[in-house]
């Protein structure tokens, strides 16, 4: 007897057997039970998700001869059910829309629908890949589809519903089949392997399910290929040898070199992957998939259901994720996605891949604005845009930052309590520049730079009022950020030896005689913002260009 592939042998036979499309199966069952079966259905979805299978199940449910009426549980033994399974039933006509797309075939179909079924309740037409019909064929079907005879049902299946004309879609009940999740596919694969008495390694099933890209038929076809190798038990190594999946250990080593800022190691790990026969596009896809796992771990934790990894893989990924931060991973994934299209059309794809991976390795983490301004204050702006050149060392070591000499940090136990009343206000106002110098090591040079142009107005009821110049709105907004505001308040409180609250104010524009003037024209505002010290620092440090300016509503 000829061998039957797994995709056909384990095809769902009833609504209860359907995998991954439970909402659609439930809706169709309810329609049968309540007698509200439509005369036309449109099943849309990607390949291998169960569209034709669901059409056959619906046909069996409507025409099962073991039941006196349509049933949600066809017997699968009567002549009608058996013939539908094999595609040989005279009352259930399956048509390939790709090879029967001319108007002549549809006119012939329209002429035959008037004849009643030979033995079943309904004459059912299943048209696969219906989007391949010509416009004339669609138009020839319109009238029949809108008012078909009572004994006729139409079921259309398509992978491209956008190509089905609107007048056809409006005459059908449309069901969109979703991609089947890797977890569901993996469970089905394990069930089939158990039924086939085939041994396998645990780390095989999940990667195989992910390779299927949501298609159960693709997953079973891939499993058939692995079984044909004759290996026992089936292991993850077969995915690399026979299905072209990149070696997981080599991808892990490449990411580890990037995370360690090891430029030479990054190039060597890339070469190791290329030597296995992988193309640049395959390496890019593998890196995107792995970095996505790291991003999920950084954002949602290792125990989230969003990860499709074994326990051992989760442990390795968690350790690797510590070498990256979320913004860097987001940037890397975006850059790799852009590179994917470039390497397919380039004559030098390897050079593009090496260049981007070295870019990752030499700038493994994004630099925050705080760090940028800190370097600017320390006189290290030249190091912001450049890293060390590649050296013959196992890993690159970032150059030491110039250290700015500062006064010893003032401890709480040493700082005297500040006086109260008007005398306290006068003391604080006069000595505010010296106070800023003392707390600079605590709040950081970047924050101290933002406060450098401020003045202390008064201390009243343990509240210190700090005033920014009229053009210091950006600095004020940055200092009011939750983390920086808490750090400033903590440093000031530590200096005075008691809890101090901070109020930030903006000085009145001198041209308005003490009154805050209304919003200036956009050109003047843009000029002020572009000449703001903080903005200049960011633009110079990042070699950036302003693409737009938005004013926050106070």
Question: What features would you highlight for this structure?
Answer:
554 residues; alpha/beta; Rossmann fold; Helicase, Ruva Protein, domain 3; Zinc Finger, Delta Prime, domain 3; 4 domains; five-stranded parallel β-sheet; three-stranded mixed β-sheet; 24 helices; 50% helix
Question: How would you describe what is shown here?
Answer:
- By secondary structure, the protein is an alpha/beta fold.
- The chain has 4 domains: 6-176, P-loop containing nucleotide triphosphate hydrolases (Rossmann fold), CATH 3.40.50.300; 182-189 and 197-242, Orthogonal Bundle (Helicase, Ruva Protein, domain 3), CATH 1.10.8.60; 248-366, Zinc Finger, Delta Prime, domain 3, CATH 1.20.272; 422-530, 2-Layer Sandwich (GMP Synthetase, Chain A, domain 3).
- Helix content is 50%, strand content 8%.
- The strands form 2 sheets. The chain has a 5-stranded parallel beta sheet with strand order 2-3-4-1-5, covered by helices on one side. A 3-stranded mixed beta sheet has the order 6-7-8.
- α18 (369-377) crosses α24 (533-542).
- The longest helix is centred in the last third of the chain and has 22 residues, at 422-443.
Mean pLDDT: 81
- β-strand amount: 5-15%
Number of helical elements: 24
Radius of gyration: 35 Å
In CATH, the homologous superfamily of the largest domain goes by the name: P-loop containing nucleotide triphosphate hydrolases
């Amino acid at each position: 007897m000829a061998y039957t592939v797994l995709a056909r042998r384990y095809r769902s036979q009833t609504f209860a057997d359907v995998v991954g499309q439970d909402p659609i199966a439930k809706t169709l069952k309810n329609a049968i039970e309540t007698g509200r079966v439509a005369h036309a259905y449109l099943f849309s979805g990607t390949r291998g998700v169960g569209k034709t299978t669901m059409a056959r199940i619906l046909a069996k449910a409507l025409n099962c001869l073991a039941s006196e009426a349509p049933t949600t549980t066809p017997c699968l033994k009567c002549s009608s059910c058996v013939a539908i399974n094999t595609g040989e039933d005279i009352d259930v006509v399956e048509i390939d829309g790709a090879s029967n797309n001319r108007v002549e075939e549809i006119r012939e179909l329209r002429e035959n629908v008037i004849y009643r079924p030979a033995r079943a309740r309904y004459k059912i037409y299943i048209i696969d890949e219906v989007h391949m019909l010509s416009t004339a064929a669609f138009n020839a079907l319109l009238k029949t589809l809108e008012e078909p005879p009572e004994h006729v049902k139409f079921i259309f299946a398509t992978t491209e519903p956008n190509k089905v004309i609107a007048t056809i879609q409006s005459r059908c009940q449309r069901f969109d089949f979703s991609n089947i999740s890797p977890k569901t596919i993996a469970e089905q694969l394990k069930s089939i392997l158990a039924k086939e008495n085939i041994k396998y390694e645990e780390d095989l099933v999940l990667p195989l399910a992910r390779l299927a890209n949501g298609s159960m038929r693709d997953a079973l076809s891939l499993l058939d290929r692995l079984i044909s190798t004759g290996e026992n038990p089936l292991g993850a190594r077969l995915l690399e040898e026979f299905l072209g999946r990149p070696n997981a250990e080599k991808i892990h080593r490449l990411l580890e070199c990037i995370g360690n800022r090891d430029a030479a190691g990054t190039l060597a790990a890339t070469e190791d992957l290329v030597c296995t026969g992988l193309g640049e596009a395959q390496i890019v896809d593998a890196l995107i998939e792995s970095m996505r796992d790291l991003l999920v771990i950084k954002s949602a934790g290792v125990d989230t259901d969003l990860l499709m990894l074994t326990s051992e893989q989760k442990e390795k990924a968690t350790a690797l994720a510590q070498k990256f931060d979320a913004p860097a991973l987001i940037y890397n994934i975006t850059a790799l996605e852009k590179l994917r299209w470039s390497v397919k059309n380039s004559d030098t794809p390897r050079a593009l891949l090496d260049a981007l991976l070295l870019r990752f390795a030499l700038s493994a983490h994004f630099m925050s604005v705080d760090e940028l301004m800190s370097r600017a204050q320390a006189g290290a702006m030249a190091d912001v845009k450049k890293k060390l050149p590649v050296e013959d060392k196992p890993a690159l070591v970032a150059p030491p930052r110039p250290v700015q000499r500062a006064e010893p940090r003032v401890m709480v136990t040493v700082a005297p309590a500040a006086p109260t009343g008007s005398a306290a206000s006068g003391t604080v106002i006069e000595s505010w520049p010296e106070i800023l110098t003392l707390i600079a090591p605590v709040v950081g040079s970047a924050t101290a730079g933002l406060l450098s142009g401020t003045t202390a107005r008064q201390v009243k009821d343990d509240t210190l009022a700090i005033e920014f110049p009229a053009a210091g709105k950006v600095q004020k907004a940055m200092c009011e950020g939750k983390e920086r505001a808490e750090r400033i308040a903590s440093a000031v409180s530590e200096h005075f030896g008691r809890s101090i609250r901070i109020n930030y104010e903006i000085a009145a524009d001198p041209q308005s005689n003490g009154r805050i003037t209304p919003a200036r024209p956009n050109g003047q505002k843009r000029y002020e913002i572009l000449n703001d010290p903080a903005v200049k620092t960011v633009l110079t440090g990042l070699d950036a260009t302003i693409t737009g300016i938005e004013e926050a509503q106070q």
